[in-house]
Amino acid sequence: MKKVLIAGSTGYLGKHVVKEFKKRGYFVRALARNPQKLKETGPFLEPAVIEQVDEIFIGDVTKPETLKEICNGIDIVFSSVGITRQKGKLTFRDVDYQGNKNILDIAAQKSVEKFIFVSIFNAHLFRNIEIVKCREDFVRELKNSGINYAVIRPTGYFSDISEFLRMAKSGRVYLIGSGKNKINPIHGADLAKICVDTVANDKNEISVGGPNTYTTEEIAEIAFSVLGKKPKITRTPAWLVNFGVKIIRPFNKQKSDLIEFIVTTQQNDMVAPATGGHTLRSYFEKLNME
Ligand SMILES: NC(=O)c1ccc[n+]([C@@H]2O[C@H](COP(=O)([O-])OP(=O)(O)OC[C@H]3O[C@@H](n4cnc5c(N)ncnc54)[C@H](OP(=O)(O)O)[C@@H]3O)[C@@H](O)[C@H]2O)c1
Fold this sequence. Notes:
This protein is α/β, with parallel strands linked by helices. It has a domain of 174 residues: Rossmann fold, CATH 3.40.50.720. It has nine helices and eleven strands.
């Protein structure tokens, strides 16, 4: 039985990936800082996965001394580790780059067959943005490591797009720019299948999105329609949000970097080859019932 290490196993994508690897017969080792999270359904309906985990490895990717044995006996490493939503003092450089590199360094010393990493669709367009720069700096390390690898490049996750539903619930959706830019976001379960498929194929880079493409304005309308509310939408010029980003930067660089990423991606079409069957409307409906 092949053994997989899943780093990021307590997050939105990671939990779906744990489920998918287990379904396909793997022995699953889950890296977790807080194993309790494996027992719980997450805030974006990502499933509890404790039943699918064969072994919990307690560790923190920013503390290499906690990772020494992490790849012992492991054939495949998957990592979706990152700090998109996390609060605290750690930076994208500390976690998205160095944390993943700490795992890679150990994987390179062991007989790991393949390292699967999740970065961002169209990263080449956003290289000046800190989160993208850090993830792509890691991708470069991965390519130079000599380990067989796959880099998955998804558009946006349903979890992040649920922000539209949250805004609609509070009465008004704020769009950045015209609202005409397009995206085909993807459900974690659909993306997890693509992640696990990479074990058996020889593609090194896979761009992927969900089955349906929407403008951000349409996503706002779907959110209001699921709630049975009349749409109330405010369009904020991107330059104004970017100005705000510059103002908060000296006080909270991490938040400012994240908002800059959201503003910039919303100014571009994010439409990748489509896969999967989950629709945003049914996801919003389920989230709304929680
Ligand atoms: N969200 C999107 O729309 C999108 C689109 C394209 C690409 N991506 C990329 O996909 C990645 C995964 O997204 P996601 O939504 O699944 O993120 P998530 O729910 O925030 O999960 C992140 C995972 O990383 C773990 N982690 C963070 N810091 C750690 C540390 N110091 N040591 C060990 N584990 C640590 C978290 O553990 P804890 O539970 O302990 O915090 C969690 O398991 C992101 O980092 C992002 O760059 C996201």
